[in-house]
Amino acid sequence: MTAAQQSIHVGGEWRAALSGATREIIDPVDATAFAIVAEGGVQDTDEAVAAARAAFDAGAWPRTPVAERAALLRRVAALLERDRERIGALESQDAGKTLEEGRVDVDCVRDAFLYFADLVAGESGGRVVDAGSDEIRSVVVHEPVGVCALITPWNYPLLQASWKIAPALAAGNTFVIKPSEITPLTTVALIELLLEAGLPLGAANIVTGPGGTVGARLAEHPDVDLISFTGGLVSGTKVAKAAADSVKKVALELGGKNPNVVFADACSTPEAFDTAVDQALNAAFIHSGQVCSAGSRLIVEEPLRDRFVAELARRAQLIRLGRGTDEGVECGPLVSAAQLARTEEYVASALAEGAVLRAGGEKPDGPGYFYRPTVLDRCHRGMRVVREEVFGPVLTVETFRTEEEAVALANDTEFGLAGAVWTSDGDRARRVAAALRHGTVWINDFHPYLPQAEWGGFGKSGIGRELGPGGLGEYREAKHIYQNLAPRPVRWFAGEAQKDQA
């Protein structure tokens, strides 16, 4: 077992929890402990916030020229490239994903740091505002928000950390990050790389510990200027309520219940049919469905349904489960015993409500938190499994007859993170994409994202955006500077001045 009890970093010092408490990190493949981290609490959190506050108010990083900030982010990207295999393998073991997924995550983190480095390095000195007079100089500049509290989820711990850390640092902020207590190890590794790259001490702080203490304290802390949270809806609403008293900036990404709409014309040839089925598997079962944008709702045109679902179920049964570093493994386990139990309960409720099981629906023999990729046919919006986010390898199937019905079904959700439409009709693709109330819409694809494009959702999928220029904007405050180059009396209130002139 790897001992990493000193996983809290405050003001330049790695330390254990002040209480001495620790937590075992469990390998979801075999349910054994393989690492130990510090279990921080409220006092650890307060000290981390104080360090970030001092580093922002009087430290070097907020005053570092933009070109130097960008250069540091590029150094971090180079270090990620250097340590790709090590960190990818750690992400695979910690989160239960395949090694290739872990490697891809490291590549995406590298790309995020490079994108935000390029974005800020290419900026000018502000946006000039035409005041209508040569005697007025008016410019809007952007300044860092201040101390940022960053709370990340367990499914993509490294990737989600980078989506927050890279823009926060690019904008000149300092931060305290709380990774999920279940999967904290690669975030600790990322903080180490930031320090190796030369980030001033105090700018980056991490407290490993539970959301109920560390996360709750960050949300309410009066010295935190912004809180960015990615996770579940229930926890996200608690964060927003706790942040309200201090009127801090809040950004929330709270998951989704994402439709994958397949029209029959998208499957008019054997190659097109194969592609649509393949992508539906990818949409639903990558990382065992533990993806906020998972295409867990297949909405397929009625004439295509039987053929499509039959092939989908056949291929789902063939997905190879196992340890992510083993040769040929395509899908790992769920992240925890609690997540496995949650998935089993959703499938049981769906079957009780009339869903028809076409594939999966069971835990395979052996240790760990594995669950077979599951296809549930004959589903409808009255079922919990269709309305609520399962965060497991469970795909529900609904059908439609008209384009209008397809759009109505796809939008019939409290969430609005992502969705897709499959069709060979270009006009239909554009109509449906425009009608879907989701933050990302794919046409004839599923899951890709670009660091240059904003990511976030409508409705209960959250508020604010990550990535893109909008993602950088979350970590900035706009300031208008208005300079009068030829000041003179206004004489709005004449008073004694007019009497003296008289």
What labels describe this entry?
2 domains; Ald_DH_CS_CYS; Aldehyde Dehydrogenase, Chain A, domain 2; seven-stranded mixed beta sheet; NAD; 39% helix; oxidoreductase; Aldehyde Dehydrogenase, Chain A, domain 1; 20% strand; Ald_DH/histidinol_DH; oxidoreductase activity, acting on the aldehyde or oxo group of donors, NAD or NADP as acceptor; alpha/beta; 502 residues; 16 helices; globular; six-stranded mixed beta sheet
Explain the overall architecture:
Keywords: NAD, Oxidoreductase. The active site is at residue 253. It comes from Streptomyces roseus. Pfam families: Aldedh (PF00171). The structure is a single chain. With 502 residues, the protein is an alpha/beta fold. It folds into two domains: 8-254 and 461-482, 3-Layer(aba) Sandwich (Aldehyde Dehydrogenase, Chain A, domain 1), CATH 3.40.605; 259-443, Aldehyde Dehydrogenase, Chain A, domain 2 (3-Layer(aba) Sandwich). The chain contains 16 helices and 21 strands. It starts with a strand and ends with a helix.
And the CATH topology of the largest domain? Answer: Aldehyde Dehydrogenase, Chain A, domain 1
Radius of gyration: 25 Å
CATH architecture assignment of the largest domain: 3-Layer(aba) Sandwich
- Which residues form runs of ≥5 with pLDDT under 50? none
Q: State the helical fraction.
A: 25-40%
Instruction: Give the N-to-C terminal Cα separation.
Output: 91 Å
Count of DSSP H/I helices = 16
Largest sheet: 7 strands, mixed
CATH C-level category of the largest domain? Alpha Beta
Kindly state the number of beta strands. Answer: 21
- What structural category do the secondary elements indicate? alpha/beta
Taken together, the total number of domains comes to 2
Family: Belongs to the aldehyde dehydrogenase family.
Pathway: Amine and polyamine biosynthesis; betaine biosynthesis via choline pathway; betaine from betaine aldehyde: step 1/1
GO molecular function: oxidoreductase activity, acting on the aldehyde or oxo group of donors, NAD or NADP as acceptor
InterPro entries: Ald_DH/histidinol_DH, Ald_DH_C, Ald_DH_CS_CYS, Ald_DH_CS_GLU, Ald_DH_N, Aldehyde_DH_dom
